[in-house]
Amino acid sequence: MRSADFSRAPRQARAEAMVVLERPEAPRGWQRAARSAARDAAGHRWSTGYRLAGARGVLAWFATPDDAAAFLAARPSGERHRRLRAEPEGYTNGRWRAEGDVMAHIERFTPVTREAERGTVPPRVADDDAAALRPGRGPRRRPRRPLPPPAAPRSPVDAGAMFVGATRYRGPHSWAVLSREWYPMVAAMRRLRGYVWHGVYWEPPFTLGTLAFFATRDDLLAFARLPQHRRLMRWITRDRRHGTAGYIRIHVADPAGEAAP
């Protein structure tokens, strides 16, 4: 459900800004030192690393955009970076929802730019097919043209938008059910024109999180409308059989923090 209060959500959701820091041909120890510097910086909330062919990077979340800017200002030359700012409104469910312990999906998708400009009402998240609530057993589809091959991952430092989100699952059985839809969803996401890069993280005991980067905000919102993603979100929010909490927070490129070489 939509929310602007993330006080009960995990620390990643409470951060108002994030930084992508990357160094091509990084020497041994650079990534560890960069993560340590992020953890020691004012306002640090959470951080993780990533690897690409020929480069290593750090993703760090901060309490405020000013904290993120101060961290970048202290970094040495030779690093690529981008600063992103969290949108005021995101999504929380269940135990992580400040407005009340509720598990439910939103009624309509967030409008993309064209819909907002034209005043068009976005489509509904729900549909009338009960099979959509069962991962891996969606409605029968008509044959389609061959899909393009998955896009090769690009660098998160070049992304204009990203989301960080997580779900607290009940246990390994829920993960097994999740896998029926997770892998097809990721395959579909990687075929989107604006896909850049994604990663996952785990927090004990059974929380799984996703970090996904896209070229633009509209590209990110297009992913949310994929049938695979819609089925998965409706499945996990319909009750508490498989999950008890979740959140999604969207970040967009800060005009004052454009990517730097």
| Second rung of CATH, namely the architecture | 2-Layer Sandwich
DSSP helical segment count: 7
Shape field: globular
CATH domain class name: Alpha Beta
Number of domains: 1
CATH fold naming:
Alpha-Beta Plaits
Helix content, binned percent: 25-40%
Whole-Å distance between the termini? 38 Å
Cα radius of gyration in angstroms: 19 Å
Uncertain segments are 128-133
Oligomerization status of the protein chains: single chain
Largest sheet: 10 strands, antiparallel
Please state the structural category: alpha+beta
* pLDDT averaged residue by residue: 90
* Number of DSSP E strands: 10
User: What are the secondary-structure elements, in order, as H or E?
Assistant: EHEHEEHEEHEHEEHHE
Query: What is the beta-strand fraction?
Result: 25-35%
Overview of this structure, please?
- With 261 residues, the protein is α+β, with helices and mostly antiparallel strands.
- It has one domain (2-257): Alpha-Beta Plaits.
- It is 26% helix and 29% strand.
- Strands 1, 2, 3, 4, 5, 6, 7, 8, 9 and 10 form a 10-stranded antiparallel β-sheet that branches.
- Strand 8 and strand 9 form a beta hairpin.
- The chain is globular, with a radius of gyration of 19 Å.
Give me some keywords for this one.
261 residues, alpha+beta, Alpha-Beta Plaits, ten-stranded antiparallel sheet, 7 helices, 10 strands
